[in-house]
Amino acid sequence: MRLHSAPLALLLALGATGTLSAQQWLPEKVGSWTAASTSSSISAVSAALPSDVAEETGFSEEARDYTAGTKKIHVELQKYCDPTSAYEGYTAQLNPGLQTSALAITSAVEKGKYILMLVGNLVLKVEKPTDVSADDIRILVTDVEKYADKSPYPPVRSYMPEDGIVQGSQRYAMGGAGFRNALQASQLGAYSGLTKEAGFEEGAEAMLANYRNGKESGTLIIIEYPTPQLAEQHLHHLEAVLPQSALENGAQVERRTALLSLVLTPSSAAYAENLRKSVNYETEVVWNEPTHSLTDPPWVMVLKTIFTGTFLFCGVAIALGIAFGGFRIVVKRLFPGKVFDRPKNLEVLQLGLSGKPIDPKDFY
Questions:
Q1: Least confidently predicted of 8-17, 83-92, 105-114
Q2: Would you place residue 358 in the very low, low, confident or very high pLDDT band (cuts 50, 70, 90)?
Q3: What is the Rg, in whole angstroms, of the alpha carbon atoms belonging to the chain?
Q4: β-strands 122-127, 171-173: how paired?
Q5: Which of 16, 197, 235, 262 sits CB 3.0–4.6 Å from 58 for a disulfide?
Q6: CATH of domain 1-153
Q7: Helix, strand and coil percent figures for the chain, each rounded to 5
Q8: Is the pLDDT of residue 172 over 80?
Q9: How far apart are CA 61 and CA 42, in angstroms?
Q10: What pLDDT is attached to residue 343?
Q11: What angle do CA 221, 218, 209 make, to 5 degrees?
């Protein structure tokens, strides 16, 4: 779960944009390809991302042309604050119908046009990928991978069921801009009111994807929160802004501990329920603290403890008495009248009630 606030994310995004844009990471050579131009920065406004999503994710980009003989390709390297924001930027560029590539990384291919590859907090885009061998693409990935942040991607992406998903419709949102863009990409702009009530400023994360199974279809949205209490709170907020017609058509918000799920524009209420149930989210409550039962000991053990303690105390008292007495006798033998039994240094207050004075020697 990624905790953030909108102002903090914005500051990090702006700071990261200035830092990353100053660094040039695209190599001079990629296998059999040689750079035909110097690396250039591209404005976030003119890039593939909407400006608000680019600002939210800390987007910056550099681009370079490469040639091999008469062939020419265009490579773009998109840089983000971290892998979480990179995943939002990556999914924001997907389109329904894109296929995954054979590369051992998260990637999507628009046949004959371009390939998108997610590498940590970086996104590589190579145009005309059919002109490039798979080995050269792997070399390019290896060259830029050394600059990438290797932190894990948001776990909420793994909760989406795979059965019936429309490839390329997946969208991840860590903030309001990404969520609004995801709704618009799925032709759900009428539900933009959900953005304000989703609670992204409190650390919410969302995934959205279209599903189709025969004649059944719908758009599944899941939103994960830091705590179940926040999920319960925003469940009621989301229900309040859903149109009554949507609720009657099966757009019910369901909570599983800290995760909310709902299906918009489902073909039927039954299909919406099946989609919600198929979300790969399980919780397990584990009690790690040691436990014990309180029982009274038998009275025999109580008596034994009492007698044992008493005899031990008496034994210690006798041993200390003998030790002190022995020490006194030894000192008196070695130093008679110097340490103990010193009548000359002893003064006795007398009341004079009898005629016989008290001799201090009588005390010894």
A1: 8-17
A2: low
A3: 40
A4: unpaired
A5: 16
A6: 3.40.1000
A7: 40, 20, 40
A8: yes
A9: 5
A10: 62
A11: 45
Confidence of residue 238 (pLDDT cuts 50, 70, 90): very high
Q: In this prediction, what percent of the chain has a pLDDT beyond 90? A: 59
Q: What amino acid occupies position 131?
A: D
What residue ranges in the chain does DSSP mark as E strands? Answer: 29-30, 33-35, 40-42, 60-68, 71-79, 107-110, 114-119, 122-127, 171-173, 205-213, 216-224, 254-256, 259-264
pLDDT at 6 over 50: no
CA–CA distance, 23 with 324 (Å, rounded to integer): 84
Burial of 232 by CB count in 10 Å (0-12 exposed, 13-18 middle, 19+ buried)? middle
Residue 58 in 3-state DSSP?
coil
Distance separating alpha carbons of residues 57 and 293, to the nearest angstrom: 53
The helix/strand/coil state of 347 is coil
Residue-averaged pLDDT of the chain: 84
Are the C-beta atoms of residues 156 and 114 closer than 8 Å to each other? no
SS3 at position 101: coil
For the chain, give the number of residues.
Answer: 364
Strands 60-68 and 33-35: antiparallel
Nearest to 265 by CA among 332, 319, 190: 190
Q: Is 287 or 59 the better-scoring residue by pLDDT?
A: 59
**C-alpha span between 180 and 196 (Å, rounded):** 10
